[in-house]
Design goal:
Blueprint (H helix, E strand, L loop, with lengths): L1 H22 L2 H4 L3 E4 L8 E4 L2 E4 H9 L4 H16 L8 H5 L1
Antiparallel strand pairs: 1-2, 2-3
Helix pairs in contact: 1-3
Length: 97
Amino acid sequence: MKELKQFDLACDELAIKFVNKYFGKDYLFDDDYYWIGSDDEDREVLAVGDYFFNLDMIVDALRYKATKKDLFDYYDMEIELSYKEEKPEINFRNFIK
């Protein structure tokens, strides 16, 4: 389906912009980022090095111009809370606003 192909291409462009902005151009050439997921959800989670970002977080980071510090502070907070089997009290979008 044409629309799904366009969606995949748009997601790939967002991934390139996200990786370039938050990790640097070196990651674009080392194949250090890739989409993971099942065949029907292949643009849901982006792996960058040892980090994993869902598409919503990628879009929000770019749309609301999150700083590198914002992105990694929230990511680290989510990881810490997950060890305690807890969730953040605030979502990423509100965190960066």
